Amino acid sequence: MPRAEETTLELDLAALEHNYNYIKSKLHPSTRLLAVVKAFAYGSDSVIIAKKLEKMDVDYLAVAYAREGMVLREAGIKTPILVLHAQPLNYSMVIKYCLEPSLYSPRVFREFLKAARAEKQKAYPVHLKFNTGLNRLGFSENDIDYIADTILDRDELKIKSIFSHLAASEDKSEESFSNDQINCFIKIAEEFTAKLRVNPFMHILNTSGILNFPEAQFQMVRTGIGLYGYGNEARFDSELLPVATLKTTISQIHYIEPNESVGYNRAFRSEGYQKTATLPLGHADGIGRQYGNGKGSVLINGKKAPIIGNVCMDMIMIDVSNIECNEGDEVILFGKGHSAETFAAGANTISYEVLSGISQRVKRVIIGT
Ligand SMILES: *Cc1c(COP(=O)(O)O)cnc(C)c1O
Fold first, then answer.
1. What is the pLDDT of residues 326-344, one digit of tens each?
2. How confident is the model at residue 153 (pLDDT cuts 50, 70, 90)?
3. How far apart are CA 134 and CA 176, in angstroms?
4. CA 326 to CA 35: how far, in whole Å?
5. Which residues participate in catalysis according to the annotation?
6. CATH architecture of 244-367
């Protein structure tokens, strides 16, 4: 890969394939794998990532919203797509693009049934989400009778799967809570199957769930962050490869005297003679102000340089006083050699946020095809 001459998000499809195979290696041969490609595939590029996953025969894809699924269909993706949080306003779009909605409450269930009826659908695939403790989205166990009463003798919908979501699958200290969620899910599934006389497949695990609760794979698992190279734990991170590397270049170097300031609001004050570098990316590219004033560090020629002063919309300044570097040199914000998890931790956040926040202004470059 030639060095970056502008801000570039490099996407390594060979790394994606490696991560996919690593996660697969944790599954029983019969467990289906759903790849989560919501939010531009965690800030990368949903079409390119989905096409690669389709080539690797992934069983399912998931997005959060209907429009994200529409974009994949318009790009020619044929794999089933679960839409985790489609809004009733978009149910006709869901049907038009053969997307499979997650239905999570009596309200949206009624709304989707109405849409399916209006579009004269028969056995339209849907997935029912149950709340087992995250208290975010999901039917409660008490809704099973309602669901049964509503569709027992109707044929518009086919319940393909029932699922739930763990609240703290990465958290060792919440292991017993996660196990309670899994047991609650099993109980719901038994009651559901008995009352509706159907046999949908089941899934509850996300990436950390796959790694920490392998006994709860059921018939499918859902992985997002793992595919992109992060496992919420150092021992898993070391087995995975970052797909996205955010690179940029040094626009200008400044030599600062003692008691000068750098950047807006004069937030950085020099103590001695310092060398600073200005980079062509800022909070409009997804590196937020929380990374300013020493909270985030970047990598230049193998050395760490802290971000100084306030992050601007289109620029960031870094302290390179002790680093041999020149204008035009490549700078790595995160990715290979400088984990997004570590970068994010500096600003008290997680890999998910920094990855998914990289804006569409940043050029995507594909390697490792
Ligand atoms: C985003 C999401 C996932 C993926 O979680 P990871 O931790 O990235 O593997 C799985 N399931 C649901 C319901 C989600 O919203």
1. 999 999 999 999 999 999 9
2. confident
3. 14
4. 41
5. 38, 264
6. Beta Barrel (2.40)
Ligand 1 neighbour 165 (Cβ under 6 A): yes
Beta bridge partners, 103, equal: 128
Identify the residue whose C-alpha is closest to ligand 1 atom 15.
84
pLDDT in tens, 162-221: 999 999 999 999 999 999 999 999 999 999 999 999 999 999 999 999 999 999 999 999
- Residue 1's pLDDT is 62
Query: Which of 84, 163, 228, 233 for a ligand 1 pocket mutation test, highest count of atoms within 8 Å of Cβ?
Result: 84
* Residues counted in the chain: 369
Closest residue by Cα to residue 242 from 256, 230, 260, 258 = 230
User: Is the CATH number of domain 31-228 3.20.20.10?
Assistant: yes
- Range(s) of the chain covered by CATH 2.40.37.10: 244-367
Ligand 1 touching residue 206 (CB < 6 A): yes
Helix (H, G, I), strand (E, B) or coil at 340: helix
Task: Report the share of the chain in percent with pLDDT over 90.
Answer: 98
